[in-house]
């Protein structure tokens, strides 16, 4: 140092980490000629020169550098820039010390330097990174005293280390020796299996599933539990990778807490909703009508079972809709809409939605109490169809007949089959097909509709159907004849004109459904006249060549 010439050179920082950029500001540096002629050292260790201008020099602090004086060597001229302290990264703390994969980890400490990550234009010299459980991570935020990163999914429990990348120049001053990393002090991190909770909102009775790992194949202790808003949930299933619980009757919104092996862990935030009916239509209709209830937070129909998925066991619990105290047939049950068929035995009165739930015994097992939450949707009046008149009283084939009255309801276009096995029986030859006996247990007449008009037992084509008027066409079958194996009915021209609506009732155990039941109204006798029949000559000339000379 005695032979060095004093110079007014300022350093951009009195302290630096390996791999960081250090700027020297001064005068008289001249132009860059070669890596041998123009050099910069830190305590005798050559640094990689990134920029050399007459009044400024930028260098990369080398990996092997130690604290000392910075010297600028220009040929035989030696300029002393000042003293720089080489510091190493140090981690004071990490938060949290136990975390899930995919969670955010915060590292607090000092001397982390600055990093632009993979977008750093100097990536050829290495990129500063963090090792988490042996996995390299590129943090999303990096400051000199704080780093934030997302824990990767392939990380394991282990040590967290901040690494600063650096590269020394080759002996001739050119770029570059292999990248080396200066590591901070290691800090232990414990990774715990992530737990996904689905869903995170719903009314009481909602099936909530915790998906994860390491729960154990059985519930091993009475203390093991799932708490929702501080209250124990009813446990339906406990397996190593899934826990199925039901939101209890007295549930309140709050954290979902898993208590296992003496430790409690918050795995989500659950919102308990209150079911509410907003509208209902129609307010008055006959049996067999599809009643629509719109609202919110009804939950789902079949979520009282123990499997993670509702459609596997299809357990409906006590979920139901009553019309005048009579359980209706559920057609559709969504969180914001419920559609039910008005049952055969329905009575006028309140429409009430019942949502079932339980309270667990000690240890979370079912059940200390079973109950329902009742939601009123409105008042419903069961209309009784009345036939006032029909015209004409007799007509030929395809003639139009108008039936007037009230309470007919709407025409149902859904193909709700009377016999659930009809599609299978269609492939078998049967000798028990019956005519005009819809109440017989062995009938397979095409009673696939629940709104129909019959001419002496044969269904007619409906042209229009309103609450006050029905228009139908006279069918052909009565004049052509109807038969089965061993029997044939060739004279069905005169008989009763009937309007029918069908529906079901639930069975005593609450399952669906009884055989279809009919509300039958007889308008009176109707005679189908022999009009509109094909010309008899059609039957006499039935050969393709009968009327041609070809």
Task: Give the SSE layout.
Blueprint: E1 5-6, E2 10-11, E3 15-16, E4 21-25, E5 38-42, E6 45-46, E7 48-53, E8 56-60, E9 68-74, E10 77-86, E11 90-95, E12 98-100, E13 104-110, E14 129-132, E15 135-137, E16 141-142, E17 146-150, E18 158-166, E19 180-183, E20 187-192, E21 196-198, E22 201-202, E23 207-211, E24 225-228, E25 231-232, E26 234-238, E27 242-246, E28 254-260, E29 263-272, E30 276-281, E31 284-285, E32 290-296, H1 310-313, E33 320-323, E34 326-327, E35 329-333, E36 337-341, E37 349-360, E38 366-382, E39 386-391, E40 394-395, E41 400-406, H2 422-425, E42 451-455, E43 458-459, E44 461-465, E45 469-473, H3 477-480, E46 482-484, E47 487-489, E48 494-503, E49 517-528, H4 537-540
Parallel strand pairs: 1-10, 3-10, 12-20, 22-29, 31-38, 40-49
Antiparallel strand pairs: 2-4, 4-8, 5-6, 5-9, 7-8, 9-10, 11-13, 13-17, 14-15, 14-18, 16-17, 18-19, 18-20, 21-23, 23-27, 24-25, 24-28, 26-27, 28-29, 30-32, 32-36, 33-34, 33-37, 35-36, 37-38, 39-41, 41-45, 42-43, 42-48, 44-45, 46-47, 48-49
